[in-house]
TrEMBL record:
Record protein name field: General stress protein 17M-like domain-containing protein
Transmembrane feature ranges: 49-71, 77-100
Residue ranges annotated for the General stress protein 17M-like domain, each copy included: 2-74
Domain of life the protein comes from: Bacteria
InterPro entries recorded: GSP17M-like_dom
Alphabetical keyword list: Membrane, Transmembrane, Transmembrane helix
One Pfam short name: YflT
Species lineage: Bacteria, Bacillati, Actinomycetota, Actinomycetes, Mycobacteriales
């Protein structure tokens, strides 16, 4: 129905349709021209694996400790239970992180974060609603790109 250069523009179009009482449950925002972009963050090292493991273990220990602390009878025991759980979570996380890093096999020597990007975004509606949606979107400040379906 209509194409937009950014997701925000496509989202704005659907918001406008919603404001005009268009049945937005009949609309879809579809990313087209998808590509996977992987940002290299740095080298994968043993100290880094230990730090990441410690952080993950601390969170797991905190959750586990708070759960166990619910069954304590005093504030001192509550703090002690949470503290010990976090400490053991950190220790287990460091060990797990180092063991995982040391495992043989095909592993990458770098850390990365992946991102899925689209060249453009299409707002699609069911055929019986297409003409009505086009009419409502005609005066949108960020008008759809030239290719309409």
């Amino acid at each position: 129905m209509a194409e937009f250069d950014t997701y925000a523009a496509a989202e704005e179009a659907v918001n406008k349709l919603s404001e005009k009482d268009f049945p937005v449950e009949r609309a879809t925002i579809c990313g087209a021209g998808l590509r996977l972009v992987e940002h290299v963050l740095g080298r994968s090292t043993y100290p880094g694996a230990a730090v990441r493991g410690a952080a993950a273990g601390a969170w797991i220990g905190l959750v586990f400790g708070v759960f166990l602390a619910l069954f304590t009878t005093s504030a001192v025991w509550w703090v002690a239970t949470v503290g010990w759980a976090v400490l053991w979570g950190v220790v287990a996380g460091v060990v797990f992180g180092l063991v995982w890093r040391a495992l043989p096999g095909e592993r990458r020597e770098f850390l990365s974060a992946s991102e899925l990007l689209a060249d453009h975004y299409e707002v699609l509606v069911e055929p019986q609603f297409a003409e009505h949606a086009r009419t409502l979107l005609n005066d949108l400040p960020t008008a759809p790109t030239s290719r309409s379906q």
